[in-house]
Amino acid sequence: MPSLLQVVRSVVAPLTRTRAFRTVGPVVLPPVERFLARVSGGRWQVSAILVPSLVLHTTGARSGEPRSTYLMYTPDGHGRAIVAGTSFARDRHPAWTYNLLAHPDASITVRGHDMRVRATPVEPGDEREAAWDLIQAQWPGYRAYERESGRVVRLFRLQPVA
């Protein structure tokens, strides 16, 4: 029998793939996430209600300035996280993916806890398909963003470092 969370995800997931959500989401969600993080000391995220979520802290690829991005992640069962640069199905890769390619050493905040990580691109082939299978199991239909964007979405594995 499916859990309540699985039922809610199956109802909400199709809504997140609508044109309206792809238009409104990138404008509304980031400021809401920043506000909630500020008032909760980084322990709460809107997206974390439905899926595991983190704040990715990177170094700007061109600017060298610190950057923070709120993302869904998928645990891979080995203490690592997989993040997908879907960018609401936009036709360009999100800036944070360029940051990780230029500076793979980053950090994440999960429920108020900080951790250093090293990002590795998930290469095409069996490993990439397995990563998408994990992501799809968590959020059904998420790969549709890749098809709708017209580009190959960048996937990264975030490995904790000591």
TrEMBL record:
Catalytic activities: oxidized coenzyme F420-(gamma-L-Glu)(n) + a quinol + H(+) = reduced coenzyme F420-(gamma-L-Glu)(n) + a quinone
Residue ranges of the TM segments: none
Protein name: Nitroreductase family deazaflavin-dependent oxidoreductase
Top-level lineage group: Bacteria
Organism of origin: Oerskovia douganii
GO molecular function: coenzyme F420 binding; oxidoreductase activity
GO CC aspect terms: plasma membrane
A Pfam family: F420H2_quin_red
Family affiliation: Belongs to the F420H(2)-dependent quinone reductase family.
